């Protein structure tokens, strides 16, 4: 989800917000630590070791909950409710796709084959919810087909990542608004 955070930074910067203010509070650092763990896992996968794929997948709910630190710190409750709606919608879309496909999420790697993230034998080596998509897959528009080269996302996954984008962006916006009003002392 690093690209989601970087996108939130970019949009905040385009809108004239100072991103560095976010790093003056400890609340962003648990998220960054998780991102480092995630990057290490990606390097391990690129090296052909798929042993930890399920481990990181099990940590994703914890990662999403870590965003609550920012929600409570900067009191961005309305934004977080909207973001939670995206998580629910994304989870629902993923769930109905998996139910339609016998409990599995079909994936259609393209760029990931070129980068080496996925190899033809990957799906038989990794014992998780993903299977290689084929012509038999149902609800193909909701399957994992958005290939980033190091991750393959579904539309549901994109909606879930909207939560991360919203929380990071609106935290930056709130910090900047408070700083411009001189109210930031009470938040540090």
UniProtKB/TrEMBL annotation:
Q: Where are the transmembrane segments?
A: 26-50, 62-89, 148-172
Keywords for this protein: Membrane, Transmembrane, Transmembrane helix
According to its UniProt entry, this protein's organism is Clostridium chromiireducens
**Pfam families, alphabetically?**
DUF5317
Q: What is this protein called?
A: DUF5317 domain-containing protein
Q: Which InterPro entries match?
A: DUF5317
What's the superkingdom here?
Bacteria
């Amino acid at each position: 989800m690093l690209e989601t955070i970087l996108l939130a930074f970019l949009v905040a910067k385009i809108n004239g917000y100072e991103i560095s203010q976010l790093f003056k509070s400890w609340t962003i650092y648990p998220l960054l630590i998780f991102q480092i763990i995630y990057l290490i896992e990606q390097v391990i996968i690129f090296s052909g070791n798929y042993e930890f794929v399920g481990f990181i997948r099990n940590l994703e709910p914890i990662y999403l909950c870590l965003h609550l630190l920012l929600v409570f710190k900067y009191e961005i409750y309305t934004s977080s409710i909207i973001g939670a709606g995206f998580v629910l919608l994304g989870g629902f879309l993923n769930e109905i796709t998996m139910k339609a496909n016998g409990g599995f999420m079909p994936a259609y790697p393209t760029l990931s084959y070129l980068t080496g993230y996925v190899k033809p034998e990957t799906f038989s080596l990794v014992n998780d919810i993903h299977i290689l998509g084929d012509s038999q897959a149902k609800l193909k528009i909701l399957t994992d087909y958005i290939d980033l080269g190091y991750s393959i996302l579904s539309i549901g996954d994109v909606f879930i990542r909207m939560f991360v984008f919203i929380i990071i962006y609106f935290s930056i916006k709130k910090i900047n608004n408070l700083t411009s009003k001189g109210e930031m002392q009470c938040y540090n």
